TrEMBL record:
Keyword Manganese: no
GO annotations of cellular component type: early endosome membrane; phagocytic vesicle membrane
Gene3D superfamilies in UniProt: Endonuclease/exonuclease/phosphatase (3.60.10.10), Immunoglobulins (2.60.40.10), Rho GTPase activation protein (1.10.555.10)
Organism: Anaeramoeba ignava
Protein name: Type 2 inositol 1,4,5-trisphosphate receptor
GO annotation (BP), single: phosphatidylinositol dephosphorylation
Residues of the Rho-GAP domain: 679-860
Length: 860
């Protein structure tokens, strides 16, 4: 028997009768059908099963342009019997030796024995997706019954909990999209549950968008305050900092910076001084008519955030989370960074962040980078899941309904000292604010682009002579600036007042901002009624047509890519169909990951409405984890990613970039063999003998610091400039001279970054445990060093000697042993995996390395 039919350019030609044994050994009689769309030149292979008088699609395989079959299901254990011969799925393409001939035959008999789609129970214009309704038809009543049962059950529960769990389901689904087992799309065709998933997600989104329809608003007054206390203890009355005119606030959030800047605090995160300030606030609030309780306090190094609320509202606080992100030297020290506290007040999620960003007038780019790193890494309870995933979704802080960001942001005023001081004298705040660095970065969308700020009608809060109201009279005579800020993001926020306070114990003045907040409280009966309306509306809206989307290009070329400099390119996705389309990126067959680790995709999944467009960004970022294989030519910046549409066709996007070799991420053994600049090497040789005692790149940086940097204050402690460090890396890779008059801190941080980029540290991983175990003993430590490979031993002696030389200049550079060794610690010793107590291991690393510095000092 053979038949074909042609409706709206669609041809179905019966090819073979098939017997299929499934993985359970059961025999099934099915037919194999070739499908051709004349208009689009697309075709595919269907396996149909007969149910009463209609045929249902059991499995669908698109046929690629190379006449090969693409597997959408796990059929490794399934066998096909065609013309008395058994085939596995992987050998099935050999049955159709020339599929183009089959197409020609189908075209020739297209007008013979035509059969209407309606004869198969399928609407002619909704030809592919509508078979799903047939699969679902028998299940429809059960699905509706199940939905109603679940809904009725939820009536007896607190609805906001259900709403909250629904939101969590969305996050879990986004996470699951990255799991390989969830990419088996055959399940969509076999179990017909696609629309159930779509319904659930649509309802969740609509509930979140329109929660004002089933909620009432409660008014909350909030004070957000920030103060860089310059390591001072609480010795003054702060009553006016935490009060408002005409009453007392419902909630108070106070952020501090430089609580304690001693080296021990920054390394061990000692909270002694933070507790002093917390107790001082508590005692101040005890004098108020309103009684306050502490929601949470959290400290990172010198950064502290304390959040209080009145006892009236305290019972409605839930889901309290906290996190911190250090962005100090190499992201290790808490001298700069942020702490965050997030919680739910009634049914509104509130996030509070206190940060201390990079200092210095010219360090605008670094401050912007600090902001981006904090946004990226402040993850709260989602940290573990996010760190195990290779992809990132929407930043966690913007998942809250309301976010406040306070702190010493360190942005300055881009005018001369005399101009700024004259404008302050004349109270011309608008001109000061016009030249404010932070305002400029926000307008250029380089940092804090989502945030707003109240109107500042007060003098700059930095920098004062301690104990006075006089701006800096020291030799540096720093330009006064609005370093201390309070920003906000979200709906239902009204900024009432922005003010500063005249305390004298620090070189900064504290500020505070008063806000009126509208927070939602879900009313159970309204929630249930609104959800029921949505379910009814969705029942009417259900759409069974095929999504139709196109890309403006499927070939993304990045040209030249260098180490540790992210490059982003975009494609435009357009929905040219008549219904919304749900998409997600999926792994290739037998792959676990969606893409290689050097590639990031900003939108892994989502919806796109008809007639709309969506930008998808691809970012290539070569870091320490990926640079080595690219440098030695075992990996290239070539990738193909699959953009899948549920019930639609896949799009294949080709990603290509040219990586410029770098000494960063290269093995120590290889670097000592290369005399010329690495950028000039076409192929890395495998010579066994070293031509240099240490890599020339290390020598160049150390030599420069020996000549110019030994007396620089806080060398290796303060951060370098990102642009300058990129320039230095380029000079090292190309062999260019250092025509450089930038910051010595940039040279120092470049040295640390180069040492830490080695795939194998100075002391190899195999000796790490021994170093930690015998860190207390110099004699045992010496024995371990004798086991180092010769090249590693040479570099160990060279760097420890350099550190000893640095410490001989401590009168000028103000370094100490613990400080400098802690910075170099990861260059010498890195574990393959973090231990149970990283803080203790860090102390042991410092102790181990310090032996050799101290003994060199004694020998000298």
């Amino acid at each position: 028997m053979s038949f074909s039919f042609n409706i709206d350019n669609i041809i179905l030609k019966h090819i073979h009768q098939v017997k299929i044994y499934d993985r359970n050994g059961h025999l099934h009689q099915k037919i194999l059908v070739l499908v051709i769309n004349e208009a689009s030149q697309e075709f595919g292979l269907f396996i149909l099963k007969k149910k009463r008088f209609i045929y249902l699609i059991d499995v669908f395989f698109p046929v690629c342009l190379e006449w090969s079959l693409k597997q959408f299901t796990d059929l490794d254990n399934i066998k096909f019997k065609i013309n008395e011969t058994w085939y596995t799925f992987h050998s099935l393409p050999t049955v159709i030796e020339n599929i183009s001939t089959e197409i020609q035959k189908a075209l020739q008999i297209a007008n013979v024995n035509e059969i209407s789609f309606k004869d198969f129970g399928i609407n002619r214009h909704l030809w592919l997706l509508n078979y799903l309704s047939l699969v679902k038809k028998d299940k429809k009543e059960k699905v509706e019954e199940k939905t109603t049962t679940n809904f009725n059950t939820s009536l007896n529960q607190r609805p906001e909990r259900e709403f909250e769990s629904n939101q969590q389901k969305i996050k879990n689904k986004q996470k699951n999209k990255q799991e390989p087992q969830s990419q088996n799309n055959s399940g969509v065709f076999r179990d017909g549950m696609l629309f159930d998933k779509l319904r659930e997600e649509w309802i969740d989104i609509e509930l979140h968008k329109h929660k004002e329809n089933f909620s009432e608003l409660k008014q909350i007054t909030l004070i957000c305050g920030t103060w860089n206390v310059n390591s001072k203890k609480p010795t003054i009355n702060i009553d006016d900092w935490v009060k408002i005119n005409g009453g007392e606030p419902d909630m108070i959030a106070l952020g501090f910076q430089e609580i304690d800047m001693t080296a021990s605090t920054l390394i061990t995160n000692d909270r002694t001084k933070g507790k002093c300030w917390e107790e001082h606030i508590t005692k101040t609030l005890e004098t108020k008519e309103e009684k306050y309780v502490l929601i949470k306090s959290h400290q990172l190094g010198g950064i502290l955030l304390c959040v209080y609320i009145t006892k009236t509202h305290a019972p409605y606080v839930s889901q309290i989370e906290f996190d911190d992100v250090p962005v100090g030297v190499l992201g290790l020290l808490g001298n700069k960074g942020a702490v965050g506290i997030r919680f739910k007040l009634y049914d509104t999620k509130i996030c509070l962040i206190n940060s201390h960003l990079a200092s210095a007038f010219s360090n605008v780019t670094r401050r912007n980078t600090d902001y981006k790193n904090i946004v990226k890494n402040l993850l709260f309870s989602t940290k573990k899941q996010a760190q195990t995933s290779t992809q990132q979704t929407k930043p966690v802080i913007f998942e809250s309904d309301i976010t406040f960001w306070m702190g010493d942001l360190n942005y300055r005023i881009a005018l001369s000292n005399s101009q700024v001081r004259e404008l302050i004298l004349n109270k011309e705040y608008d001109k000061l604010f016009t030249n404010d660095q932070l305002k400029e970065q926000i307008s250029k969308q380089l940092a804090f682009e989502h945030f707003q700020e109240g109107m500042m009608n007060f003098d700059p809060t930095y920098k004062y002579d301690v104990g006075t109201n006089i701006y800096d009279t020291s030799e540096k005579k720093r330009i006064p600036a609005y370093c201390d800020r309070v920003l906000f993001y979200g709906n239902g926020i009204r900024a009432r007042e922005y003010r500063r306070h005249e305390y004298l114990i620090s070189d900064h003045k504290p500020i505070s901002a008063i806000f009126n907040l509208e927070v939602y409280y879900i009313i159970p009966d309204r929630f249930k009624e609104y959800k029921l309306q949505l379910i009814k509306e969705l029942d009417k809206m259900e759409n069974q047509t095929i999504p139709n989307a196109e890309l403006d290009t499927n070939n993304v070329v990045f040209e030249k890519v260098v180490y540790n400099v992210p490059v982003t390119k975009s494609i435009i996705l357009s929905n040219i169909g008549s219904v919304w389309a749900k998409f997600n990126f999926v792994p290739k067959v037998n792959d676990k990951n969606i893409c290689k680790s050097w590639l990031k995709i900003d939108k892994l999944n989502g919806f796109i409405l008809p007639g709309t467009k969506l930008e998808i960004k691809f970012t290539i970022h070569v870091d320490n984890s990926t640079a080595h294989l690219l440098n030695i030519g075992k990996e290239e910046l070539d990738e193909i990613v699959i953009l899948h549409f549920e019930n639609g066709k896949d799009h294949f996007v080709s990603i290509h970039g040219e990586y410029l070799k770098s000494c960063f991420g290269m093995n120590l053994e290889t670097l000592v063999q290369i005399e010329e600049p690495i950028r000039d090497i076409k192929e890395i040789s495998k010579e066994s003998e070293a031509k240099m005692i240490i890599p020339k790149e290390i020598w160049r940086l150390v030599d420069y610091l020996n000549l110019y940097g030994m007396d620089e204050e806080y060398i290796f402690v303060e951060s370098g400039n990102i642009g300058e460090m990129e320039y230095l890396r380029e000079c090292l890779d190309t062999g260019s001279a250092f025509n450089f008059n930038g910051s010595l801190h940039s040279v120092a941080e470049t040295l640390i970054m180069l040492l830490e980029s080695f795939p194998i540290p100075i002391i190899p991983f195999s000796l790490y445990k021994s170093c930690i175990d015998f860190s207390y003993s110099y004699e045992d430590s010496k024995k371990i060093i004798t086991q180092l490979p010769k090249n590693h031993q040479n570099l160990f002696v060279y760097i420890t000697s350099f550190i000893q030389d640095l410490l001989s200049h401590l009168e000028f550079n103000k370094l100490n042993l613990t400080q400098i060794v802690s910075v170099f610690a990861n260059s010498f010793l890195r574990p393959i995996k973090l231990g149970k107590d990283p803080t203790i291991e860090r102390k042991q690393k410092i102790e181990f390395i310090s032996h050799f510095i101290q003994m060199k000092e004694k020998e000298n």
